């Protein structure tokens, strides 16, 4: 149930015909807002939309969304003044209403379509080419805050992102920046993204560069030369296996005598109780000794430096990310390729690898 439907239900419960009144009685907008989990001003705005739609909540929702999609209104929402006003209003709401956060959590839990509507709205909004720099900067600042690293002021990063976007193509791959999205994956792979040149130094103008999102995902915290070497080996791979390396993998034992098959299955079984993969299936894949897509030799060596896991550690990749961990939908790859592919198709990391090799060599 949308906010419009909740306001309409609150009015109906009070016996108010929204088409017959021009203004609600004093105090009622605040009363309705407290009931539906909104602000008095927002409730009053929804009443206006309901009046325009003749009391039809579905029609009022369509009218409101159509208004949000108009170019003039979208340009207005992109202004710094609007963003600052909106953020200040949200901060004040969180500070003055202790139940606001709980109401939002409850709405997400009780409305099965809430998250999908929000995601569709964000995707439609971010498909605007003029928003590429804004989205890249917002993601960079949020990432910096989550990781506790410094970042430059938003205005400086936005000007920097606009300069990167004006180049037209990603400097590491030659791929054109575009927010277009085919619906596969969590976000458009070719959209502008700010990448930290030296991981951990922060999202600053001096330490960031503009790349396509798929490049940022492939690099992670790995240095450019290492990723370029992986891409070269991948493109030169002739499809052959490495049985000798496979024997070494099968002989590996971890803490408490844990086998490599048990270690590889630990994550999928923990996150997905319906996983039907068996240790025998894993051992059969490990005996090949290489990543099934890139051909990189697999290893159980410990992490190095800032890596949480070795880039060539065995990892189970689902071909269709919406399906489960079943033998027909899984393959054994290296951790680096699993991260680079994310939930896109194989063509995305392959195109990135081609661009990196052509640019870096």
Average pLDDT rating: 83
Q: Regions with pLDDT < 50 over 5+ consecutive residues?
A: none
Distance between the termini: 54 Å
Share of helix, binned? 40-55%
Which structural class is indicated by helix and strand composition? mainly alpha
Count of domains: 3
CATH class category of the largest domain: Alpha Beta
Task: Write the CATH architecture name of the largest domain.
Answer: 2-Layer Sandwich
What fold name goes in the CATH topology slot of the largest domain? Herpes Virus-1
**Largest sheet data:** 2 strands, antiparallel
Spatial strand sequence of the major β-sheet: 1-2
**How many helices in DSSP terms?**
17
Number of strands: 4
Shape: elongated
Order of helices and strands: HHHHHHHHHHEEHHHHHEEHH
Q: What percentage of amino acids are in beta strands?
A: 5-15%
Based on CA atoms alone, the radius of gyration comes out at: 26 Å
Structure description:
53% of the residues lie in helices and 6% in strands. With 361 residues, it is mainly alpha-helical. The protein has 3 domains: 3-125, no CATH class; 128-220, no CATH class; 225-360, 2-Layer Sandwich (Herpes Virus-1). The longest helix has 17 residues, at 80-96.
What are the key terms here?
mainly alpha, Herpes Virus-1, 3 domains, two-stranded antiparallel ribbon
Question: How is this fold's topology laid out?
Answer:
Blueprint: H1 3-13, H2 28-36, H3 40-52, H4 57-68, H5 71-77, H6 80-96, H7 100-110, H8 114-126, H9 132-147, H10 154-166, E1 192-196, E2 208-212, H11 213-219, H12 224-236, H13 243-251, H14 260-271, H15 279-286, E3 314-318, E4 330-334, H16 335-341, H17 347-360
Antiparallel strand pairs: 1-2, 3-4
